[in-house]
Amino acid sequence: MTNVVAHRGARRLALENTLAAFSKAIEIGADMIEYDVRRTGDGVLVVSHDPSWQGRRIGEWVYSDLLTSAQGTGRFCTLEEVTQLASGSIGQNIELKELGCEDSVLAVLEASLGHGDVVITSFIDDVVRGIKERHGGVRAGLLVAPDIPQEVVDARRTEHLGPPIFVRAERCGADLIVTHEDMVTGQLLDDAAARRLPVYVYTVNNPAKLRQFMADPRIGGVITDVPDQALAIRELVSS
Predict the structure, then answer these.
(1) Fewest CB within 10 A of the end CB: N or C in the chain?
(2) Predicted pLDDT at 112
(3) Tell me: the pLDDT tens digits for 166-175?
(4) Among 46, 132, 57, 53, which residue's Cα sits nearest to residue 83?
(5) Contact assessment for residue 62 and residue 42, using Cβ atoms and an 8 Å cutoff
(6) Which distant-in-sequence residues (6+ apart) come within 8 Å of 75 by Cβ?
(7) How confident is the model at residue 164 (pLDDT cuts 50, 70, 90)?
(8) Residue 122, SS3?
(9) d(CA 140, CA 56)
């Protein structure tokens, strides 16, 4: 069964990347929540997709000041708060936006790793590699996008590993790949299946594409802004 992953929580039912959005995702029965983690200047791991807030980078804020500046919005909950909410209730797809916070993230997650489905993902190969080197038992996923620089593609193409995505996945030890919906082809899915590498797809909101991906056993999960619709489509496809 293809997992339904609520992108930044149930973001069309509550403000994205907040405890309210994650609670809504739990309420509607999504399989996982997806959210983004950054680090403040004083080392607090906060949930934020955007790199800046009110003209300052997240890494330039002291957490108490950041929280005060967003008072009343529900923004900038901590990784620990989300983990406590999710543990035992819903899986977590945690995207790390920055290199260098792997140890801190794993320390927060340590208590919950045995309670539900947790995967750590990143567009940064060294983050994925760092997670696997520190804790091989944690699932880590490599995020890939259509705009991979051509020089990176050429440098990493080797005959025995195959296409560049799989070269990168092999070199950083990824347990799965998380690919943009525009990159999904039958060949990519076949290549991933041959390598026993699960594929998750983001960000899928179109009903026709949701039906297509839900019906494809080669796809392990869809990350979507409309998890309620995705769940309904999955039920129709599987009935």
Answers:
(1) C
(2) 65
(3) 988 999 999 9
(4) 46
(5) yes
(6) 15, 17, 18, 48, 53
(7) confident
(8) strand
(9) 30
44 phi and psi angles, rounded to 5 deg: -85, 135
Q: For residues 152 and 14, give the distance between their C-alpha atoms in angstroms, rounded to a whole number.
A: 38
Using the 8-state DSSP alphabet, how is residue 113 labeled? Answer: T
For residue 219, give both structure tokens: 């796809």
Other CB atoms within 10 A of residue 155 CB: 11
CA–CA gap between residue 222 and residue 73 (Å, rounded): 28
Take residue 161 and report the two structure tokens written for it: 């590993």
- Residue-wise pLDDT for 88-125, tens only, equals 899 999 999 999 999 999 999 987 665 458 999 999 99
What values do phi and psi take at 12, rounded to 5?
A: -95, 0
Helix axes 102-109, 79-86, angle to 10 degrees: 30
Q: What is the largest CA-CA distance in the chain?
A: 54
**CA–CA gap between residue 141 and residue 132 (Å, rounded):** 10
Per-residue pLDDT of 174-212, as tens digits, reads 999 999 999 999 999 999 999 999 999 999 999 999 999
Q: What residues contact 100, with CB distance under 8 A and at least 6 apart? A: 39
Q: Which residues contact 169 (CB under 8 A, 6 or more apart)?
A: 142, 177, 195, 197
In sign, the C-alpha dihedral spanning 229, 84, 47, 146 is: negative
Residue with tokens 């950041």: 66
Closest C-alpha to 194, from 171, 221, 172, 170: 170
Q: Are strands 91-96 and 32-39 parallel, antiparallel or unpaired?
A: parallel
